[in-house]
Amino acid sequence: MHEHNHNKTVLNRVLRNAIKLAVFSGLIVAVVASINFVTQDRIELEKKQASERILKEVAGQRDIQLTTIADGIYVTTNKQGHTGFIVPAVTQQGYNGEIKLLVGVNHLGKITGVRVVEHRETPGLGDKMLVRVSDWITGFNGKSLQNPPSEGWQVRKDGGEFDQFTGATITPRAVVQAVHHALIKLNSGISQEHLQ
Amino acid sequence: MTSKQIIQDGLWSNNPALVQLLGLCPLLAVSNTVATSLGLGLATVMVLGASNCLVALIRNQVDEATRLPLFILIIAGFVTCVDLAMQAWSFELHQRISLFIALIVTNCTLLGRAESFASKNPVIYSLLDGLMMGTGFLLVLLAMGFCRELLGHGTLFSQMDLLFGDTAKNWTIQFTTDGQGFLLAVLPPGAFMLMGLFLALKNIVDERLLVSARARDIQRVRIDLRTP
User: Fold this and answer.
1) Mean pLDDT over each residue of chain B, to the nearest integer
2) Is A132's Cβ below 8 Å from some Cβ in B?
3) Is pLDDT of B39 > 70?
4) Fewest CB atoms within 10 A around its CB: which of A10, A21, A160, B93?
5) Half-sphere CA count of B133, side-chain side, radius 13 A
6) Confidence of residue A196 (pLDDT cuts 50, 70, 90)
7) Is B70 in the A-facing interface, judged by CB distances under 8 Å?
8) Strands annotated E in B13-172
9) B128 to chain A nearest CA, in Å?
């Protein structure tokens, strides 16, 4: 009889705790859900603006029309009716993880802009490739597959035309290579089909 | 426990970073510049104050067995809210420190204060404790950010516009012309060493305080002896 009562009180306590935990969980979820409801539109807008800002920076022009073709590649059409491309480039040759880039190319095959979309390089060192930290990445503007020729697509330390950062060669080397590869890929593949 | 004691504990004598040595991961990883330090610090103060408050509110309702999951649930809930709010109103800063915002949940300072203070004290004291512990953490973060930005980048208050908008764009003070600094200060080992220096400095100050307090006591005894 005593044993039975004991079991019953344990069961009661477990039940009470479970209910309390469920109620509190429900409350917390409700709070998070309402904050999410209040902020979701703004977050969506900020994300959209951020990606549009990058695309326009890379295309080098504000007034462009963007059309997506395969694999995150965009075809850009400016006011004069010229067609260019924005191609993604990824490299694993950086100091830490992947560096994701966007490379914009105009109808003459010249680079209109390069921006880093995602990276995990050392802050204060590898992040000089970010446009808000230094203007290094604007050094790609106007370059193309012919200018400089293939052997020039390297950092100065390796005999190329592009500056490295003081104290950091790995990151710029990776970025220069990735941009070069993106140009080669664009030249050999999609551009022929779409420029016709 | 008086409010004066709570304030003193949080800011100095039981400082979460310098004495309890908690939350070191975000402390070392995010203290690159004053701006990022301030961002993470403020987020921590907010979450810590709010979580302490709520834990104190429900402290009489919770059972031994379920209190830890509940505390974590509360902390995680608040962190998610701060994360969302930051994404909405401070998007670019969020882009840079989002990983560490999420990691506030695992900052042991928060669960530690919930368990050792807020679960035993009334709401108002718990709120004060949360805010003071948070501020203590924020101050250490700021000091680290200040030293590391000055040494490593040769600037101060750069990119404060991430927090305060466009008006803050010209707050940057540039000390070197080429934007180059002492590399070690930027890297995590440098942060670790700086942290060690801060700990040593605090110990020295504490020792001095103790010595002068003793000297005062001795003087008082002397005066007592002279007046029979």
Assistant:
1) 87
2) yes
3) yes
4) A10
5) 31
6) very low
7) yes
8) 155-156
9) 22
Give the residue, A145 or B165, on which the prediction is more confident: A145
Provide the mean pLDDT of chain A: 85
Instruction: Indicate the pTM of the whole model.
Output: 0.77
The closest of B25, B14, B11, B18 to B104, measured between CA atoms, is B25
- CB atoms closer than 10 angstroms to residue A11: 10
Tokens of A74: 């965009």
Measured torsion, CA atoms of residues A17, A22, A24, A26, in degrees rounded to the nearest 10:
-170
C-beta of residue A157 within 8 angstroms of C-beta of residue A165:
no
pLDDT band at A113 (very low <50, low <70, confident <90, very high): very high
Question: Could you give phi then psi for residue A96, rounded to 5 degrees?
Answer: -155, 105
H or E segment and range at residue A101:
strand A99-105
Instruction: Mark yes or no for CB contact A43/B88 under 8 Å.
Output: yes
Report domain extents, chain A.
64-194
Interchain CB distance below 8 Å, A124 and B77: no
B159 and A132 within 8 Å at the Cβ level: the answer is yes
Residue found under tokens 């019953």: A8
CA distance B147 to chain A (A): 14
Most A CBs within 10 A among B68, B87, B144, hence the mutation to make, goes to: B87
Round to whole Å and give the CA distance between B163 and B199: 29
Whether the ipTM is more than 0.90: the answer is no
pLDDT, residue A45, reads: 92
Give A145's contacts (C-beta < 8 A, 6+ positions apart).
A109, A183, A184, A187
Contact of A24 with chain B, judged by CB distance below 8 Å, is answered with yes
User: Smallest CA–CA separation between A97 and chain B, in Å?
Assistant: 15
A86 bridge partner residues: A74, A104
For residue B87, give the nearest of A24, A39, A132 by CB distance.
A39
B66 with A36: Cβ contact below 8 A? no
Q: Is the pLDDT assigned to residue B105 strictly greater than 60?
A: yes
pLDDT digits (tens, 9 = 90+) for A4-57: 777 888 888 888 888 988 998 999 999 999 999 999 999 999 888 888 888 888
